Amino acid sequence: MATATALAAPLLEVRDVHVALGGGPVLAGAGVTVRAGEVVGLAGPNGAGKSTLLRAVTRVLRAERGTFLLRGTPIDARSRLDFAREVAVVQQLPEAPPTMRVEELVLLGRHPHLRLLGRESGRDRAIALDAMRRAGCDAFAERALGTLSGGERRRAFIARALAQEPRLLLLDEPTANLDAGAQGEVFELLRALAADGVGVLVVVHDLTLAASYCDRLVLMQRGRTVAEGPPAEVVTAETVRRVYGDRVTVVRHPSTGAPLVVPAVAGTEDRDA
Amino acid sequence: MDARRIEPAGAVAAPASRGAGLRRLAHLGPVAVCLLVLVAVALASLSQGAAGLPPRTVAGLLVDRLPLIAIELDVPETWRRIVFDVRLPRVIAAGAVGAALAYSGAAYQGVFRNPLAEPFLLGVASGAALGAALTIVSPIYSGAYGFGWVPAAAFAGGLLAMVLVYLFSRSGGSVSNATLILAGVALSAMLAAATSFILMTAGERTQAVLSFLFGGFNTASWSRVAWALPYLLAGSAVVAVFARVLNVLQLDEEQAAQLGVDVTRTKLLVLGGASLVAATAVAMAGVIGFVGLIVPHVVRILWGGDHRRLLPLAALLGASFLIAADLFARTVIAPQEVPVGIVTALLGGPFFLWLLRARRVGDL
User: How far is A32 from chain B (nearest CA, A)?
Assistant: First the structure.
């Protein structure tokens, strides 16, 4: 494994990113690395700069300074279209007309692969259908977006990203506002994609969820990367307290030993008993 | 709608030729329907007027004009004159203007993701009218190029109005739906006032400006149609190139950018093309409101929002709509003519109010 990773450049390598918005610095030296086939969780308190880092990577936002490499070459050297053929994004609150049908939305994911005057081929349609199956929205492909539940809507936008056939998938809090079961389903999907060789970078608030499903975690605080590594090394009582304050603590799962982040409420034991 | 439906890969590849022909017909369906409506409305308009002609005879005259087809028709020469020199240029001018207004309306709505955007409400029509009025009172109008300057000046005025409205309604990188229309209506009022002022001070040209401003198609002629056609084709070609990209722009700008769309460049080119089309329509027939609002909306309800069909279908239906409105305008209190803009406003005003009630505009 060591030789394999040493030979191949990481899918995404981002270092020392500086972004200032509205006067103040939002990112001050953040960085993250994603290799093919791994799920990397990006966590940290509100305002740590997680979404900003994603937007800087996708060039929606200009960084003042920083190194952005996609498979070893600078991201700026690629055209927008070229970049979109390799990197897909699922935003936190993406917009689309409420009358647009799921299958229409997903087919838009083929845009980077089409010529300006080209139209979707049978192959494009097959890829879109496959993306809908994987994301679990093929059953309601013909429904309008305005009629979907929050979880169904999320799946439709994930399918749109999958239709791009990306090497790298970036997701901004794909589990926000989903129930526990649906959250698990999203992460199962991300694991399956990683098994196919896709690199996944996912912003996630729930550290327990992140620790259960991610290969590595990147913990951010005030625009900086403060910890990076396997979940067991990053999610420790000491680090979590340092980043989130002393209202939370870490316990170990009784049978698996996985880190569980729980509220540190005085007298919890008494109440549970 | 059916054309964009995703079918299982097997169904596409399968040699089931029985279904293929039907599907092709279903794909042609909306175009065929719109063409049939257009032919029917055009025929009605060619037949009706001060001299009522039998539609069958008019159809015969038209078919006779086609290359390689000759029909023996025993009709008076005056009938031919009425059809080919008076009514046909008028019908074609009304059709071209209706198509242009509906087409540009659909394009504006696509760029702004706003169902209320259309040339009249955005102030583009008033800007174009001011540009055209300025040209008519200027010395160049009587020069060699004559009417040829009017569409160019209308384009300049319309584009300027578009840019001003866009800049006014833009805040923090996004354009609010309500602000866009309010800015358009406000600017429209200012530009209309300026045009009225020009009218007051036009002296001997007053009649020329006035007949332009009242709009309509009673001055339609083959030469004006010929002047306008290149502008219409150029503008609509630019928009047509980006028809599929407009579908991607229906997502928010961040998503569109992440899908590889150069959002700013696309918007500028489509707005430029749409404004050229809309301004040429104004140069041909004055300010005619609401066609660009009603027609694309009806097409979207009937056949969905894919711009690759929305744009051409809106053009076809827009042509029928304005030919019908013009027919009504010139026959309802004949021999007097009602300006066609009054007819479209009487229909469009209530439609606009209904849209405001039926949908929360902020959501769209």
Answer: 19
CATH number of B88-363: 3.10.105.10, 1.10.3470.10, 2.40.40.10, 1.10.150.20?
1.10.3470.10
Indicate the DSSP class of residue B246: H
Looking at residue A10, which CATH number applies to its domain? 3.40.50.300
Domain-located, residue A124: no
Domain-located, residue A211: yes
With respect to residue A208, please indicate whether it lies within any of the assigned structural domains: yes
- Give the pLDDT confidence of A37-61 residue by residue, as tens digits: 999 999 998 888 999 999 999 988 8
Tokens of A112: 């980077």
Contact B6 A119 (CB under 8 A): no
Q: What is the ipTM of this complex?
A: 0.87
pLDDT tops 80 at residue B74: no
Domain borders along chain B are 88-363
Q: Do B13 and A104 touch (CB under 8 A)?
A: no
Instruction: Enumerate residues 6+ apart whose C-beta is below 8 A from A175.
Output: A182, A183, A186, A187, A204, A206, A209
The SS3 assignment for A221 reads strand
pLDDT band with cut points at 50, 70 and 90 for residue B273: very high
Inform me whether the pLDDT recorded for B321 exceeds 80: yes
What is residue A27's DSSP assignment? E
Residue of A nearest to B240 (CA): A117
CA separation, residue B104 to residues A201, B21, B110, B337 (Å): 41, 33, 10, 27
Domain that holds residue A246: 2-86+166-272
Average of per-residue pLDDT values in chain B: 83
Nearest to A80 among B252, B262, B363 (CB): B262
* Binary contact (A88, B363; C-beta < 8 A): no
How many domains does chain A divide into?
Answer: 1
In this prediction, residue A1 has a pLDDT band, given cuts at 50, 70 and 90, of very low
Mutate to test the interface with B, among A101, A130, A165 (most CBs of B within 10 A): A101
Probe site for chain B from A89, A111, A142 (most B CB atoms < 10 A): A111
Token pair of B226, please? Answer: 């010929």
